[in-house]
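[09:14] KT: can someone run the structure on this one? pasting the chain below
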Amino acid sequence: MINTALTRRRADNPHEETWHIYFTDVRIGAIGVRTGVPVHADQWGWSVGFYPGMEPSTWRSGIAATFEAARGAFETAWSDLQPNITHNAFAEWRQDRDWRAAMAAKRARSEKLDSEIRSTLMRCICGTTFDSWRPAESYQHRAHITAAQAANGTRL
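[09:31] RB: done, structure tokens below
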């Protein structure tokens, strides 16, 4: 049986009172004290939705006078949204979370990301991958490039 109860965890920032709300291991929203509002206005805000996984237009949010009222509104909104959220949406969010954690771990180890590593590999129009810095590999593919340019009437 899967636990379907919502759990909340206090945000890391000690200067604000914000609670992150989780459904299993997916952060689905937040409830927190609104900043910069007049003292006579409702002080609590809430939002339900997560990305990636849900389209931003499906999110819900609101304000409330107390934490309990915000929590109640949050739970009502979640009850309305949850039946329409697919398992794939949760899987997409988890995959993104794991990818971001892997990138942060690489940065913490002072490693370059894959996109930052220079590569001299190229793919010829014939489909072969070769190293452009090795003449023995690249010369045979220059004939393909020349033939393609002649066929298209272009030159590099």
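[09:33] KT: thanks! The CA atoms of residues 49 and 59 lie 5 Å apart.
[09:34] RB: yep, looked fine to me
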